[in-house]
């Protein structure tokens, strides 16, 4: 009987093994489980990419231009003691997982072969690390080469029956290393008969079994730490190895377990789906590091998470799954300030024995809390509490901090003993990080970047490793870099690919003289208009300019002209991608981190005076009562007549002797802007306040000299009104043209519960009523919140009200219903950002959409795709928030520096009150600081806290009542905290 | 019962008569004279032929009939238990007790499977999928698999989810002989080699599976040598075909033999709970033998050409044929099997060392080999 097997059996075609397959199980999101069989076609034309090899150069595949990709690995790689002929490194997966920071070091780790097996495994284990690895392979100087060993016939490895995946992958790595060694030897031999310098290909692995097998097979291998130990400045490099993989056997034999185990992933997912567990982002209160909250979609209010045990190793920012605790464990949020450094000052980072998850003092602090809640009975309104049962996604990043001086055993600089020290992160919400270092002495007093590697159940604090030092504490460079890192601001110089996108003429670029030039196509010639710009003093990136002229019919023509950035930044080129990544320009006190390269931002796009510039203009016809008759949008060419600062403009307007057309135009603008503003206010726009101060710096050294609150002039609001008008008009136009994909900005109306506390405080302390039904009601009731004795009181209330609101956000119009478009603060139905394309990416996108809406140019497909736009919105929302925070942090730092060594007495207001301290806001410097009871007197005075009336009755020697909104005189000094070496503004009651 | 295939055997009445008498001898002489009445035709079998399926097998018989079976498994939510789960949720949330309190008694009971969890389709070249033959074959095969309930119990994942098994049976050749036994054997082999991804989640959680195919568990695990006795495995049932000619019982008849059968029986057997008992009878059905449709021979007495007298009416013809029953002239059998014979057939199939046990162990060894 003739019989043919249907199987493509591996036995039958042993001779011709260019075909292999891979079988695995894939679980899809929708719950399907599939067996996947992938066929692999093995090739022989995957080059080794070593410049030593000529054979591979001939077989390497070519692109459509008949060119092969240039080879990566150097022909003269660096050697080491054991391998004097030079070495190529082949790290395994764990080497990358534990030592990614090492591989990123510029001075070492060149000529690295990244195997496909390893790359895929890294991708499965950690996506962020995978992206970093990919970035490394693109870095030309590092010479990282991805070798597709699974596709090359000689290095492909079939999984043996009964072999685990890990063993198979290890074998694949060994096989590849073996092949490489042989291949390189042959290549060198083919090159010249005499050459004796044959580089070794070394496997880097920490897997003992793998190393043993490699030894047996005569494959050169080394552990990561052994390899690093042979390099220069090994001490620093060794500190950069992640501690996560560190074997537990070093620890005491029976580790004590402090934290409950996490639920399995499937259990959490089932629970979340069924609604018994909840998922959300874990946030830690900045006042109390033991109190966290998680906002989950199921409830309006956040769930409280109290204590270390309940927060179960979650770090602020992680996405966690929580379980609501039974009602008898519900508590009111704390009214007490609890800071980690004061409670756990005496922890020993090395000690493992007898370590408790909750130190005695923490326990006492919590007990006091419970007592307080209980004594309040129903009034205290206990809130639902929850405990963390698992973590869906760690959002650990790199943290900036400094070494806790008390945790260092020997701080002699010469000592190279490895010791474990604490790193105290700048961000108070992040727990101390346990770090192993050999350079403790040197690192003291420096700003340090570190990352968290793991947090095991038997360790009270997370374990991390040193990444690099930013410099001395309080040095300007280190502190600036620190806050840029903390807020994830991309501050590296623009790469060459971005600069290549700039116009070739550079600074000599001019608006083409001939009207026939393609640049003039569909562009209006508005060079005759008397346009001027009004900006803060010293502004170089001028986004906007204005003009107003009287029309024959008695109405006015008003124009807002915005820099035409979209002419220079074309969608999807390298510059556009970089700008969309950065999202916004970040303004620090002494530094500006641009979204676009300088050439564009401060010259070609900037609407500088006296020169012709491309612009995107919005032209309105407005009646003298400030009603809009019509709006027109066009690309244009303008010539700004003057660039004023707010102050100069104000002086010019106020100067009656100036009667030229330009000045009169500005007067018209001012008149119209006041009417527009009134209309807006009538519609219910909010006049909010935030504590803004300006740091004056010495021009040369940019050392802070003085701090001032910002003055607001009429001209400020002149510009603001017309920018709002332009934004609103453009938003309407873009939405009309692209109902699904217009990029808009909304400000959700805050839930009433947000105002509950403030409104209660106002009622009790001042007998005032805050109505929050609509923005109009809120605006009106905020106007009534005045204290005739104290003019600042109103501003204070506005500042506090602002904090109760939601933050505005960019969104894509298809994702929300029209009523949700509303901008609460501006009381506008629809709004977008259009007027600052030089410094905001959202504006640039709005420009492109508007250009398409007026048929100037076709819309780029990426701007029509909703998912892509949603991604852009998500990113710029984050960037925008980060930029604001970084700016604030920068001001805060400089205010601190300006106050260095001073002793000032100022007025302050009490903003928030706790049972053991209160927060004072000093308007003069815009600083907000905590005064603890123990700062008032030592020993800490007793106090009676009346939470219902917001009064803290301090006993003891101080003998004084402190209540909310009270105006107090405070003494401002600065102080270097002994334990941390950190300078802080310190307030004291006078 | 199901009608046999229309494909008729092209044998003359004389040949049929000859065939029948050889088979009716004691001992019978089969068409393949080397085989005894209990012997199966030789076959070639292989498994895991379709890489994309959870289990697959192919069997080709010596007469050229060939079947291919693929088994695919998909995760499905169990609707009934979902309601149960939701109720359970409400209860525990209100009481504030541990959600997974009831988890202990999850894996104790049998009979958790539902018949709808197994789906079967039979495709035979030249037949539409709603033709009688494929539909009946599918129904019989499925009925056999579900008869013990052991298969569907294996498909239970937890109270909220189960595996749904889709068994696709493809007859690669035209149905030369009655293909029931072949399809059943191929299905049996495919199920024996079927593996399901290993479960990682616990209790009533949404199921999560190990992505390593090598870790997948067999639907019918081969038990390693148990401590309390010889190794024993539960196996899916298999159907053997037996026919009766006179007093003789012949297993696994070929096409021509079927054409002269007095009666045909499909016997479904599964492995017995204890290995000493041979096999277990799961069920049996009589199959309408194709011999009913064979053309009767014309005896000389009725043939005018040989000097006989043609019967005047068809009723007359029938009467005459009855009278000539034992004359050796072929006439289609009337069917029916005596009870004693029936019992005998079942005994032969299920006895220790009987046909079924032999077949089951033979198929098992294919899997091993």
Instruction: Kindly estimate the percentage of residues of chain B that lie in beta strands according to DSSP.
Output: 15-25%
Looking at this structure, what is the CATH superfamily of the largest domain in chain B?
GHMP Kinase, N-terminal domain
Please report the first level of CATH classification, the CATH class of the largest domain in chain B: Alpha Beta
State the end-to-end CA separation of chain B: 38 Å
Terminal CA distance of chain A: 108 Å
Instruction: Give the beta-strand count of chain B.
Output: 11
CATH fold naming of the largest domain in chain B: Ribosomal Protein S5, domain 2
For the sheet with most strands of chain B, the description reads:
5 strands, mixed
Order the strands across the largest sheet of chain B as they lie in space.
1-2-3-5-4
* Assembly level: heterodimer
Rg calculated over all Cα atoms of chain A: 33 Å
Briefly note the structural class of the backbone of chain A. Answer: alpha+beta
Mean pLDDT of chain B: 80
The total of helices of chain B stands at: 9
Q: Radius of gyration of chain B in whole Å, from Cα?
A: 25 Å
The total of beta strands of chain A comes to 37
* Tally of domains of chain B: 2
Instruction: Please describe the biggest sheet of chain A, giving its number of strands, its sense, and whether it closes into a barrel.
Output: 6 strands, mixed
Q: Taking all residues together, what is the mean pLDDT of chain A?
A: 83
Summing up helix and strand content along with how strands pair, one would put the structural category of chain B as alpha+beta
GO molecular function (chain B): mRNA 3'-UTR AU-rich region binding
Subcellular location (chain B): Cytoplasm; Nucleus, Nucleolus
Keywords (chain B): Cytoplasm, Exosome
InterPro entries (chain B): Exosome_comp_Rrp42_subfam, PNPase/RNase_PH_dom_sf, Ribosomal_Su5_D2-typ_SF
């Amino acid at each position: 009987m003739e019989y043919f097997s249907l199987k493509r059996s591996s036995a039958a075609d042993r001779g011709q093994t260019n075909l292999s397959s891979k079988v695995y199980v894939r679980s899809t999101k929708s719950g399907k489980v599939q067996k996947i069989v992938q066929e692999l076609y093995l090739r022989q034309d995957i080059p080794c990419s070593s410049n030593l090899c000529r054979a591979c150069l001939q077989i390497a595949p070519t692109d459509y231009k008949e060119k092969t990709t240039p080879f990566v690995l150097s022909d003269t790689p660096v050697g080491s003691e054991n391998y004097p002929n030079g070495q190529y490194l082949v790290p395994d997966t764990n080497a990358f997982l534990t030592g990614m920071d090492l591989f990123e070091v510029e001075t070492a780790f060149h000529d690295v072969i990244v195997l496909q097996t390893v790359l895929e495994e890294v991708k499965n284990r950690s996506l962020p690390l995978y992206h970093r690895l990919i970035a490394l392979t693109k870095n030309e100087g590092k010479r990282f080469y991805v070798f597709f060993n699974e596709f090359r016939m000689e290095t492909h490895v079939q999984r043996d029956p009964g072999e685990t995946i890990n063993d198979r992958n290890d074998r694949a790595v060994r096989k590849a290393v073996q092949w490489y060694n042989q291949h390189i030897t042959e290549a060198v031999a083919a090159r010249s008969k005499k050459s004796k310098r044959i580089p070794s290909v070394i496997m880097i692995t920490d897997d003992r079994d793998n190393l043993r097998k490699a030894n047996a097979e005569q494959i050169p291998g080394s552990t990561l730490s052994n390899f690093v130990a042979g390099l220069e400045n090994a001490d620093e490099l060794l500190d950069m190895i992640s501690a996560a993989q560190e074997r537990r056997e070093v620890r005491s034999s029976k580790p004590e377990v402090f934290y409950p185990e996490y639920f399995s992933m499937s259990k959490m997912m089932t629970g979340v789906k069924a609604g018994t567990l909840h998922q959300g982002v874990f946030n830690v209160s900045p006042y109390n590091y033991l109190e966290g909250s998680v906002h989950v979609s199921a409830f309006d209010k956040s769930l409280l998470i109290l204590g270390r045990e309940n927060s179960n190793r979650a770090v602020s920012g992680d996405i966690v799954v929580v379980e609501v605790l039974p009602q008898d464990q519900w508590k009111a949020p704390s009214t007490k300030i609890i800071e980690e450094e004061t409670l756990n000052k005496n922890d020993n980072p090395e000690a493992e024995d007898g370590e408790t998850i909750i130190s005695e003092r923490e326990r006492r602090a919590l007990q006091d809390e419970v007592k307080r809640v209980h004594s309040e009975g129903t009034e205290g309104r206990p809130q639902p509490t929850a405990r963390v049962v698992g973590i869906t996604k760690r959002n650990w990043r790199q943290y900036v901090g400094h070494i806790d001086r008390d945790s260092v055993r020997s701080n002699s600089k010469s000592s190279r003993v490895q010791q474990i020290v604490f790193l105290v992160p700048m961000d108070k919400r992040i727990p101390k990080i346990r770090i192993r270092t050999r350079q403790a002495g040197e690192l003291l007093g420096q700003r340090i970047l570190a990352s968290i590697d793991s947090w095991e159940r038997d360790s009270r604090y997370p374990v991390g490793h040193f990444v690099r030092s930013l410099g001395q504490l309080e040095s300007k460079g280190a502190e600036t870099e620190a806050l840029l890192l903390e807020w994830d601001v991309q501050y590296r110089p623009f790469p060459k690919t971005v600069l290549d996108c700039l116009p070739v003429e550079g600074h000599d670029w001019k608006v083409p003289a001939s009207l026939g030039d393609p640049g003039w196509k569909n562009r209006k010639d508005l060079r005759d208009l008397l346009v001027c710009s009004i900006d803060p003093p010293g502004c170089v990136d001028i986004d906007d300019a204005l003009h107003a002229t009287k029309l024959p019919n008695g109405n006015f023509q008003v124009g807002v002209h915005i820099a035409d950035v979209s002419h220079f930044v074309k969608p999807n080129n390298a510059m556009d991608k970089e700008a969309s990544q950065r999202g916004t320009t970040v303004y620090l006190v002494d530094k500006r981190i641009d979204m676009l390269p300088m050439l564009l931002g401060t010259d070609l796009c900037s609407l500088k005076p006296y020169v012709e510039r491309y612009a995107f203009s919005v032209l309105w016809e407005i009646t003298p009562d400030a009603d809009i008759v019509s709006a027109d949008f066009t690309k244009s060419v303008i010539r700004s007549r003057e660039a004023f600062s707010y102050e100069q403009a104000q002086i010019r307007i106020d100067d009656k002797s100036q009667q030229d057309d330009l000045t009169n135009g500005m007067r018209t603008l001012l008149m119209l802007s006041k009417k527009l503003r009134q209309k807006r206010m009538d519609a219910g726009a909010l006049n909010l306040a935030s504590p803004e101060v300006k740091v004056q710096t010495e021009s040369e050294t940019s050392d802070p000299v003085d701090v001032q609150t910002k003055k607001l002039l009429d001209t400020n609001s002149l510009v603001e009104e017309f920018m709002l008008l332009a934004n609103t008009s453009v938003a309407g136009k873009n939405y009309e043209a692209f109902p699904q994909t217009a990029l808009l900005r909304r400000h959700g109306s805050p839930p009433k519960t947000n105002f509950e506390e403030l409104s209660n405080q106002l009622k009790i302390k001042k007998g005032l009523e805050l109505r929050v039904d609509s923005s109009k009601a809120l605006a009106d009731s905020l106007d009534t919140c005045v204290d005739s004795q104290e003019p600042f009181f109103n501003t204070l209330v506005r500042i506090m009200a602002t904090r109760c609101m939601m933050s505005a956000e960019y969104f894509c119009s298809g994702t929300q219903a029209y009523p949700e478009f509303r901008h609460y603060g501006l009381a506008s139905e629809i709004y977008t950002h259009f007027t600052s394309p030089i410094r905001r990416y959202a504006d640039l996108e709005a420009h492109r959409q508007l250009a398409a809406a007026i048929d100037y140019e076709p819309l780029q497909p990426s701007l029509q795709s909703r998912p892509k736009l949603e991604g852009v919105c998500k990113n710029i929302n984050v960037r925008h928030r980060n930029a604001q925070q970084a700016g604030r942090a920068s001001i805060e730092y400089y205010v601190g520096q300006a106050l260095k060594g001073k002793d000032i007495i100022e007025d302050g207001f009490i903003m928030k009150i706790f049972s053991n301290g209160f927060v004072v806001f000093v308007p003069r410097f815009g600083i907000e600081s905590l005064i603890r009871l123990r700062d008032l007197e030592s020993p800490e005075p007793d106090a009676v806290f009346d939470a219902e009336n917001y009064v803290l009755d301090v006993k003891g020697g101080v003998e004084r009542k402190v209540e909310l909104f009270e105006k107090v005189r405070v003494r401002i000094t600065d102080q270097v905290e002994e334990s941390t070496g950190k300078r802080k503004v310190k307030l004291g009651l006078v | 019962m199901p009608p046999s295939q229309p494909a008729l055997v092209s044998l003359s009445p004389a040949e049929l008569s000859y065939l029948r008498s050889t088979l009716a001898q004691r001992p019978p002489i089969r068409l393949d004279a080397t085989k005894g009445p209990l012997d199966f035709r030789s076959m070639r079998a292989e498994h895991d032929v379709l890489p994309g399926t959870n289990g697959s097998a192919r069997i080709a018989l010596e007469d050229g009939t060939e079947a291919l079976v693929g088994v695919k498994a998909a995760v499905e939510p169990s609707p009934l238990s979902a309601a149960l789960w939701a109720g359970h949720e409400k209860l525990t949330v209100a009481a504030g007790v541990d959600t997974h309190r009831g988890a202990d008694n999850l894996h104790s009971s049998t009979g958790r499977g539902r018949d709808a969890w197994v789906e079967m389709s039979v495709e035979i070249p030249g037949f539409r999928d709603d033709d009688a033959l494929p539909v009946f074959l599918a129904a019989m095969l499925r009925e056999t698999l579900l008869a013990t309930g052991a298969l569907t119990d294996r498909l239970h994942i937890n109270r909220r989810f189960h595996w749904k098994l889709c068994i696709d049976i493809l007859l690669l050749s035209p149905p030369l002989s009655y293909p029931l036994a072949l399809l059943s054997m191929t299905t049996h082999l495919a199920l024996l080699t079927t593996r399901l991804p290993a479960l990682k989640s616990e209790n009533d959680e949404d199921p999560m599976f190990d992505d390593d195919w090598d870790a997948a568990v067999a639907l019918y695990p081969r038990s390693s040598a148990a401590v309390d006795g010889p190794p024993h495995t539960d196996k899916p049932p298999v159907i053997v075909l037996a026919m009766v000619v006179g007093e003789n019982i012949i297993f696994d008849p070929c096409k021509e033999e079927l054409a002269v059968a007095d009666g045909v029986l499909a016997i479904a057997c599964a492995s017995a709970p204890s290995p000493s008992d041979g096999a277990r009878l799961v069920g049996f059905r009589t199959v309408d033998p194709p011999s009913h449709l064979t053309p009767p021979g014309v005896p000389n007495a009725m043939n005018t050409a040989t000097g006989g007298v043609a019967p005047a009416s068809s009723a007359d013809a029938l009467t005459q044929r009855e009278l000539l029953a034992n004359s050796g002239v072929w006439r289609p059998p009337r069917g029916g099997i005596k009870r004693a014979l029936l019992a005998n057939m079942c005994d032969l199939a299920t006895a220790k060392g009987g046909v079924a046990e032999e077949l089951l162990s033979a198929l098992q060894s294919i899997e091993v080999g």
